[in-house]
Amino acid sequence: MSVYEYTVQTIKGEEKSLQEFEGKILLIVNTASKCGYTPQYKQLQELHETYSEQGLFVLGFPCNQFGEQEPGEESDIESFCELNYGVTFPMFAKVDVNGEHAHPLFTFLKKEAPGILGSKGIKWNFTKFLIDKSGKPVARYAPKTDPLEMKNEIEKLLSE
């Protein structure tokens, strides 16, 4: 299995198959607009601008499961990201990442790239999953990890 087998809904409500990203490097992030880590949007956008032409796609998935830090509607989230951080990378509809209503994509990611000590659950907003060109998760990063700290791993995957 790979991430390419999943369909997601864009922030504008359109269905999108992740198959469209086949052969690309993906950085999948559960995001929130009212979180202490929200300024990471700036670094995520920087990664997108630096590496998108080489094949990196940052994919943002808003989530309201942690401290209700993403309370807005999709249109509010999209406006916030564009106005405050100049986000141009793909954003998707709000999802649950844990629990019985977790999006199947995140169930797959948690299984394939568990956290510290093998934990499956996502602990907070801005957990990041790095996906290789074959659609396999190769790394999971904690919310506190600054996106720019992943540059070496991203460059390595882009060169393979």
UniProtKB/TrEMBL annotation:
Keywords: Oxidoreductase, Peroxidase. SUPFAM superfamilies: Thioredoxin-like. GO terms for molecular function: peroxidase activity. Residues 1-159 form the Thioredoxin domain. One of its GO terms (biological process) is cellular response to oxidative stress. Belongs to the glutathione peroxidase family. This is Glutathione peroxidase. The lineage of its organism: Bacteria, Bacillati, Bacillota, Bacilli, Bacillales.
